[in-house]
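Figure 3 (text version): structure tokens given as input.
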């Protein structure tokens, strides 16, 4: 009889212990709000230590026992993972086994110069690894890129370059006939000028037409952004207004000095500017000037242009 009593007592204690363990396994955790945690490579103790340090679980021991009891559900992954607020041990282990890696984003804005893109990549800090190398001007496609922690900078730049090559090949193949552009690279060069000149998206095709017409008529492009690029050496914004010395500067990028296109792109143009250059608006405009409202006024003759400039200056009190 005593043996039976002891056996029953053991069973009851075991059941109570199992009940407590299950409650602990499913009880809300200490994490106040969702958090991204870098889960290290290593054993259960290393992972548990990182989770305790991050405030995801309370006890390394409890985590170790929970992981051991559920080992048949799969291995734990080392990655940057997002844990929800108040995640129980059950939820924590599910994230470790099946959770998606945290994704980060970097946006390369249209019109950034190569040096500015390099600085943007440098600001990723420990999200990316490897040396920052300034890319070739105009080689990367401006857009938002998604990546995981630990990506190499060179790998990220390769993706950006491949995106540009893919888009450029597609757009060049479908270009309008009769353009005075001999290669896709020349399209990038002209698009980089349009990118800087256009203030409104809808004006890009018309601004592209002005420069196309100038190329076809043998006129110099006389685009201020090219003079600014030469003056500041491709290092970012000039930081001041252009002066006469800048416009007269003997520089292969200064289209007040050189005929035709400059030596290379002056920034990374976006898809809209590439399309504007390869599918420009129609018309015979050779000039444009700001009208003071954020738009431009276009004209086909120097006389018309001079009148437009005079109106602009008068409106500004010059």
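Below: residues designed for each position.
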């Amino acid at each position: 009889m005593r043996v039976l009593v002891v056996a029953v007592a053991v069973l009851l204690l075991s059941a109570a212990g199992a009940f407590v363990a299950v409650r602990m396994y499913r009880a809300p955790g200490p994490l106040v709000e969702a958090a991204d945690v870098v889960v290290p490579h290593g054993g259960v103790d290393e992972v548990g230590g990182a989770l305790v340090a991050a405030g995801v679980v309370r006890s390394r021991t409890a985590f170790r026992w929970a992981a051991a009891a559920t080992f048949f559900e799969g291995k734990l992954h080392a990655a940057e993972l997002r844990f929800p607020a108040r995640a129980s041990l059950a939820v924590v282990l599910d994230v470790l086994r099946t959770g998606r890696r945290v994704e980060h984003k970097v946006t390369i804005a249209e019109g950034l110069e190569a040096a500015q893109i390099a600085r943007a990549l440098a600001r990723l800090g420990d999200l990316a690894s490897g040396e920052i190398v300034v890319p070739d001007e105009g080689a990367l496609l401006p857009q938002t890129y998604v990546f995981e922690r630990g990506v190499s900078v060179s790998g990220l730049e390769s993706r950006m370059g491949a995106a540009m090559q893919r888009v450029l090949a597609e757009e060049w193949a479908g270009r309008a006939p009769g353009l005075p552009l001999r290669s896709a690279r020349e399209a990038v060069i002209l698009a980089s000028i349009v990118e800087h000149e256009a203030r409104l998206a809808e004006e890009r095709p018309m601004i592209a037409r002005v420069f196309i017409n100038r190329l076809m008529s043998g006129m110099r492009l006389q685009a201020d952004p090219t003079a600014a690029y030469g003056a500041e050496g491709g290092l970012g914004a000039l930081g001041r207004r252009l002066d006469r010395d800048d416009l007269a500067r003997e520089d292969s990028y200064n289209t007040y000095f050189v005929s035709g296109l400059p030596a290379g792109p002056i920034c990374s143009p976006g898809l809209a500017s590439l399309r504007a250059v390869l599918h420009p608006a129609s018309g015979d405009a050779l000039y444009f000037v700001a009208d003071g409202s954020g738009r431009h006024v276009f004209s086909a003759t120097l006389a018309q242009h001079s009148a437009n400039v005079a109106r602009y200056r008068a409106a500004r009190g010059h």
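Residues 8 and 68 are 27 Å apart (CA to CA).
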